Amino acid sequence: MAGIKIENARIIDPATERDETGCLCIEQGKIVTEESMKAIDTIIDAQEKWVCPGIIDICAYMSNPGQDFKASFTNESLTAVASGITSIACPPDIHPLIDNPAAVEMILRSASDTGKVKVFPIGALTEGLKGERLSEMHTLKEAGCIAVGNATRPLLNNEILRRTMEYAASTDLTIFYSPEDPYLRNNGTINEGEISTRLGLPPVPHTAETVAVSTAILLMEQTGARLHFNSLSTSRSVDMVRKAKADGLPITAAVDICHLYLTDMDVDNYNASCHLVPPLRDIEDKNALWMGVLDGTIDAVCSAHQPISLDAKAVPFTMTTPGASTIEMFLPLLLDFMSKNKRDPINGLRLVTENTAKIIKQPLGSLKPGSAADIIIFDPDTSWTADVSQLLSKGMSTPFANWQLQGKVTHTIIDGAIVYQNDQA
Fold this sequence. Notes:
The protein is α/β, with parallel strands linked by helices. It is 30% helix and 23% strand. It starts with a strand and ends with a strand.
């Protein structure tokens, strides 16, 4: 495999606390020292650019039901690497649903065939995600699943949740859990508050999430399960996770980029691009999520990318498909978040590299010699507009349409191979 030398870059590696100008060398798919390189086939001048480990997105969808899986997977993989994403944890509620070894094999084969982004499947917590019968977690793990989860599907009752935790603990699998009480949600589509009342939309109370978070924490205390909360949205949830961590429980949590930047105010005028699960909350919740990220209570930020078509949003709000295309805006928004909070790049990028690698338990997210050469090069100063007509994703519905963003990927390297290059960025 070709040897690559990246020169004059600002090299940022949260895993080793490295932040310096220098060169980075790649050979045989691994990061190596300059002294040990045998041959240099390609030199990349990264003057005024940043180099860091590839982003590991722990929640992003590669397709949605109704789409041609192969075509969608190929397209979204290209979109991912063009956005600096080198690895994705894929939720189980895609098509085909990840509840059997054949589905796992299909996803892994599709990822291999595209030669683009690495995909780590999350297996279904229950058969068919129906919330009734436990899935064959051990078999799913042997097939290649790195965790199990419920996506956004409810479980039949708390006894089922307890049994899934016991089984997951016995197989050493983390549960990726989306906390929501379906009875308290009661077909709601927007945060309960002033906006839901004014628009006359069915509300989702905070307790739909917080009751589920509290229950899950109590059950993980009982079962010894390892739990990762997907996309928290409320201030009370952050408080409960903070306390659970202080008590020593093996718990991690993430927030998606939309909930760091948007509130239920953005749903005004029935903006269907802001119909999300969980729903966008109020400004106090958004501020609490920011604080949770800054103080380490929230371990990771994810894109929660879903390639939803414009047609799926062109119906009355309550009938629209929830979700948004976010992956192309993910890195610029993360850079903006770091800047707004005066955070150094190491701490900001840790949220999508070192921390996410630990959550999915993969030897990724580092630039130290011997590590897999999953690397991105980007210009943090390139400004651009999120023009929906220019998005690479098949999902063109995004709440960030026409936002002015800053930061553009120029190169994405996976296992030492350049899988994306944009010399015009």
